[in-house]
Amino acid sequence: MNDIIKAIRAELGLNQEQLAMQLGVSPITVNRWENSKAKPTVMAQNKLYEICKECEVDLADYIVKSCTSEEELVFYHASRKGIKGNIQPISRSKCDFGKGFYMGTEAIQPLTLVCNEDKPKFYQLKMNLDGLKILDVEVEIDWAMLIAYFRGYMDGEEGTPIFEKYAHMADGYDLIVGYIANDRMYQVLTDFFEKRITDTALIASLSALELGRQYVAITQKACDQIQILDEKTLSRLELLILKDRNQIRRREGISLAERCMIEHRRDGRYFDEILKGV
Question: Can you give the pTM of this predicted structure?
């Protein structure tokens, strides 16, 4: 928290006295914040956010960088209430790849995922992959269809060959590795599942975005090989800034889907056509 306040002052070109005046606090208070001897109240954090908005200061990249490790093979995870006890594969069943423990290779996705929560926790993790059976899903139609199955878009197709294919694709595996259907990709996938864009437009959108990878531990064996390196409680100020970034990324996804839909209006197949084998 102390570093982000220093970063705000640097972006605004203010000294501690000037920032204190804008916030209606004493310079000593700002000094204590920056030296980690105290934390800004919720009211002060709201005011800091308003000043950033008014002066068009976007510190989302700074927050992401501060949450990113320089070590190799570090994964990131965010949680509404934090990890209690042993890590377990107990997420909601209608996540991208079903129930599991989700980690990403980029910090931005889990950070924006919990930006609407009150006091979420952010984690840096490592994982020992030795002895695990890994399903690696490439960015192509199989990736989208597997997500469609787990999100419930194939409900009603039980017993069909295509349903059975994706219902059992992850059988016997400990870990699923695939690209993240992040906040930019969410709208594009929704447009595909709701038959507004074709598979060709979807793949074109995937190619245009730099998607991070997610590692989903779907067995307890895989979860037991995950190690927590660091835990951080996200402040209200950080969450407000990340919420703005999340909205920007979603708008990017909508704009991208619209362009791809126009460019590939008559190319490829729609989701219902794929389900029917057309």
Answer: 0.86
